[in-house]
């Protein structure tokens, strides 16, 4: 066995969906964009559909078309990027629901797919996607005369509950949707945790399903076990890896394991930062030297035997720990997990 094993617990994902569902009276959707945050859209979405999810969200029409193949006719598949040029056929054939982001997209939708359901994304202050308040004011009567299924917006600071931006965006969303009798959606994982004012009719959790912050009660979803290729002992003064970036100051036993930055294990996990470690048998085993493309060196002096694999992600340390060590966020760790792993699903 030479490849690292990425184990994805579909039951944990389903349990996290149920736990987020219990936090609101709203319908709980599921965000499965970017191949379900790198974990495999087909397997993950099917597990979520089995748990009861009926509304899915993807970033792109192409992702939606693939998801339709995986899920069959029933579930609603919403597309955040809306209706981009050239998407009409995919939207029609896969019965996708584009979240219309602009006047241009609305015209394209009405021209190419008259009568086809769509949603609208409003910009309540994030300035990323969606119609601005004035634009929406001019179009809302037209939109409402069409098969409009959902009005949504997205919070910029929902992972910071005390941030004043949350209340400002909530006000703006209320202002823009007042008097409209269409289902509304404002909250991703962070928004769900802000409380019932933010829940509206449909929620859109992503990261919380996959075990990441800010949903602290999430069950861990991912385990990553990396095989040991070789071990050696180094004496004080010897250096390890590219650039001699680590020097032993005592006698240590090192293991070289079979994964690196080509597998999404950030170079910033190397000892430039210094805290990153693997685990085995409850012992913490520091990464030493730089992360190479396919290899990482680990100080296993704390172990009495050499195990076949060392664990980088698991119950003892999660994607957010890796993110902290690498100076990024759990979302980026998950979506970077490489194609080279042996992927194993717990159903
Ligand atoms: C990615 C995304 C979500 C899910 O966000 P999480 O923080 O992962 O829960 C919801 N809505 C929109 C518009 C998104 O882009």
Automatic annotation (TrEMBL):
- Please give the cofactor(s) recorded in the UniProt entry for this protein: pyridoxal 5'-phosphate
Pathway(s) of this molecule: Amino-acid biosynthesis; D-alanine biosynthesis; D-alanine from L-alanine: step 1/1
The active site is formed by: 33 (proton acceptor), 242 (proton acceptor)
Quote the Pfam families the UniProt record gives: Ala_racemase_C, Ala_racemase_N
Which keywords has UniProt assigned to this entry?
Isomerase, Pyridoxal phosphate
| SUPFAM superfamilies attached to this UniProt entry | Alanine racemase C-terminal domain-like (SSF50621), PLP-binding barrel (SSF51419)
The superkingdom listed in its UniProt entry is Bacteria
Question: What positions are modified (N6-(pyridoxal phosphate)lysine)?
Answer: 33
Q: What is its EC number?
A: 5.1.1.1
Concerning InterPro entries, the annotation shows: Ala_racemase, Ala_racemase/Decarboxylase_C, Ala_racemase_C, Ala_racemase_N, PLP-binding_barrel
UniProt: substrate binding residues: 128, 293
Q: Which reaction does it catalyse?
A: L-alanine = D-alanine
Residue span, Alanine racemase C-terminal domain: 221-346
Return the HAMAP family for the record: Ala_racemase
Tell me, what does this protein do in biology?
Catalyzes the interconversion of L-alanine and D-alanine. May also act on other amino acids.
Q: Which family does it belong to?
A: Belongs to the alanine racemase family.
Task: Please identify the protein, giving its name as recorded.
Answer: Alanine racemase
Q: What organism does this protein naturally occur in? A: Sulfitobacter indolifex HEL-45
